[in-house]
């Protein structure tokens, strides 16, 4: 049997752990630069606050309904996530961390599933303060359905729901709308609803040949999983990304090319660091630059350049240098710029790197990158930077509602009186 453990309203719940005065208050978590709503407590959902709501348009809504607003506090959320995952590993050695707030587990056939589900919930709640729901079923796709039922009916299920019979499976699938099925995106949902496929049960009634012909083997495997036939197994590691992007809105609008180059250098360096983490090299860069959509003369400006590198690399020095050159071509005077980004693609494993007698980069780059990564990991906060980055001041996102990093900064540790 598979179990899916999912933290309820994870970001909002993390904030509540250390600020229990908001335990029953509506909470909204904002994206980078306090742009839009990316997480809501149940109370905020009940008020009609939509996901993705632009924060500047909902200021009066927040005030009128006394919604407590927080900026994204990723160091806190990441640390709380690792604590939850370490607890789950105590119940099963076979675990797949699916996202920051949920994980699949493979359970022993001799387990008392109902008792185990409640043990998991109680231990995570007691040790971290985070509420969870547990869905248990013969397959991963069905455990997703079971988890959704546990979340939807907390009083009836106690936060744990088990699909352990054919009757329960069919009833659960008939209850689940096709748009809520794991792996069914908007485009696929639209195509299925046009065929009058409205529930997960309707999807399982389609013939295998039709699903494979109309869609792909991925959708066929999903159908089999919903039928109770194991086709989706636990993944030991996250698949290697085929491209890596760092795109951000600036804290303010910029017109000076020096400011824009600094930002792009920082984004390019971030991409290079992520490449080294997954042991990949890239050979294509895409640099993006966009004007402010709130400025009349700048809102239509949006441009990009693709740079093909002469050799694959994950060196921050090489990637930053190429990104900076691209800005010289993208930049136009008179535009107020609000957003930029760097995408690295054409990724290959570092083990596939081939040296070229005439165009390969300096061989000293790799040991230098290893030393920089090691020191930054040890001391944090990017103590070592590329010279194109601003060395005197730390660039920060707009985070006007940021809470403390209670578990990762000594200065932010709670003081008990």
Structural class based on helices, strands and sheet pairing = alpha+beta
Order of helices and strands: EHEEHHEHEEHEHHEHHHHHEHEEHEEH
User: Largest beta sheet: what is the strand line-up?
Assistant: 5-6-1-7-8
Low-confidence stretches: none
Number of helices: 15
What is the average of the pLDDT values? Answer: 89
**Domain count:** 3
Radius of gyration: 24 Å
Number of strands: 13
CATH topology of the largest domain, what is it called? Alpha-Beta Plaits
Task: Tell me the helix content.
Answer: 25-40%
Short description:
The chain is of the alpha+beta class and 417 residues long. It has 3 domains: 2-162, Reverse transcriptase/Diguanylate cyclase domain (Alpha-Beta Plaits), CATH 3.30.70.270; 174-226, DNA polymerase, domain 1; 243-379, Dna Ligase, domain 1. 38% of the residues lie in helices and 20% in strands.
Polypeptide structure, described:
This protein has helices at 10-18, 42-46, 59-64, 74-88, 113-128, 140-152, 154-157, 166-175, 186-194, 200-204, 208-214, 217-226, 257-277, 316-330, 365-379, and strands spanning 2-7, 27-30, 37-40, 68-71, 95-99, 102-106, 132-137, 160-162, 243-254, 280-291, 302-313, 337-345, 348-349. With 417 residues, it is of the alpha+beta class. The longest helix is centred in the middle third of the chain and has 21 residues, at 257-277. Helix 4 packs antiparallel against helix 5 (113-128). The strands form three sheets. The protein has a five-stranded mixed beta sheet. The protein contains 15 helices and 13 strands. It folds into three domains: 2-162, Alpha-Beta Plaits (2-Layer Sandwich), CATH 3.30.70.270; 174-226, 5' to 3' exonuclease, C-terminal subdomain (DNA polymerase, domain 1); 243-379, Dna Ligase, domain 1 (2-Layer Sandwich).
């Amino acid at each position: 049997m598979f179990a899916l453990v999912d933290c309820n309203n994870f970001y909002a719940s993390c904030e509540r752990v250390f600020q229990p005065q908001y335990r029953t208050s509506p909470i909204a978590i904002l994206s980078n630069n306090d742009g839009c709503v990316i997480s809501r407590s149940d109370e905020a959902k009940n008020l009609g606050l939509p996901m993705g709501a632009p924060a500047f348009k909902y200021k009066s809504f927040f005030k009128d309904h006394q919604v407590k607003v927080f900026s994204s506090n990723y160091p806190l959320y990441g640390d709380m996530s690792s604590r939850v995952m370490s607890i789950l590993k105590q119940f099963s050695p076979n675990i797949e961390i699916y996202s920051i707030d949920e994980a699949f587990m493979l359970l022993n056939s001799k387990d008392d599933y109902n008792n185990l589900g409640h043990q998991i919930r109680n231990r995570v709640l007691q040790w971290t303060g985070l509420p969870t729901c547990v869905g248990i079923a013969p397959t991963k796709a069905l455990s997703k359905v079971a988890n959704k039922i546990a979340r939807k009916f907390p009083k009836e299920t106690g936060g744990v729901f088990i699909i352990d019979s054919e009757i329960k499976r069919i009833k659960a699938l008939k209850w689940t709308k096709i748009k809520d099925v794991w792996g069914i995106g908007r485009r696929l949902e639209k195509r299925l609803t046009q065929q009058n496929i409205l529930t997960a049960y309707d999807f399982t009634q389609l013939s295998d040949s039709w699903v494979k012909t109309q869609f792909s083997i991925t959708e066929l495997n999903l159908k089999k999983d919903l039928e109770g036939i194991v086709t989706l197994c636990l993944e030991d590691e996250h698949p290697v990304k085929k491209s890596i992007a760092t795109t951000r809105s600036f804290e303010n609008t910029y017109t000076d090319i020096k400011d824009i180059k600094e930002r792009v250098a920082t984004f390019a360096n971030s991409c290079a660091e992520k490449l080294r983490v997954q042991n990949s090299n890239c050979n294509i860069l895409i640099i993006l630059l966009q004007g402010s959509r709130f400025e009349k003369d700048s809102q239509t400006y949006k441009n990009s350049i693709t740079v093909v590198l002469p050799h694959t690399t994950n060196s921050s020095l090489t990637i930053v240098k190429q990104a900076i050159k691209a800005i010289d071509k993208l930049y136009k005077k008179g535009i107020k710029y609000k957003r930029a980004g760097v995408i690295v693609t054409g990724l290959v494993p570092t083990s596939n790197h081939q040296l070229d007698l005439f165009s390969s980069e300096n061989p000293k780059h790799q040991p230098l990158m290893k030393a920089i990564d090691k020191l930054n990991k040890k001391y944090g906060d990017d103590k070592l930077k590329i010279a194109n980055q601003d060395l005197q001041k730390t660039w920060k996102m707009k985070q006007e509602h940021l809470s403390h990093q209670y578990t990762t900064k000594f200065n932010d540790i709670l003081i008990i009186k």
